Every structure is written in structure tokens, then in C-alpha cells.
Amino acid sequence: MKRILIKPLVTEKTERLSENEKVPQYTFVVSKAANKIEIKKAIEDMYNVPVKSVNTMVMPSKRKSRMTRSGVQKGAVSSYKKAIITLPEGEEIDFYGEV
Fold this sequence. Notes:
Helix content is 20%, strand content 38%.
């Protein structure tokens, strides 16, 4: 069985999307080979919530460089696929549980 959901994406923008009560949206990093139907089924199975819609996008890789004591360090951030999950009004996903 392939792993569809890799991790939830938690940033300032995704937190704002999830706090909207009318249209709650959550963002996940998913497998590049997964399609919308597989993502929807994985979310419903893992979090026991109905999914209204799934939007996917492939984020391109980026070249990065930074200055350090030893000089300029160059590298890259690899590409990934992310999915924005829209839930029906009144539903929510609790990532943190009883933290």
C-alpha cells in the first residue's frame, strides 16, 4: 500500500484557511502519484470527516543559497505536491489533539 498523505502543511496562511468557519480548508503534502479520489478517501479514513472537495497543485523545486562563515552554501528545495482539502461547514480536523 502506498503512502498518500505525507504530512499536514502548517504555515500562517494555512492556519488562516483552517480557522474560517464557513469554509474550513486544510493543506497537506501528498504523494506525487496520488490523485484527488485517493486523497479524499485517505483523509476520510484517517480523520473521520467528510470531504467536500480536493484541490491539488505541484509546487516546483527552488534553488536556495545562504551566506555562512565558510562562504556561500548552495542547495535546492525539491518539488512536492500539495492538496487543499475543503470540509463542509461545521466540520474540523484537530491536528494537535490534547497537547
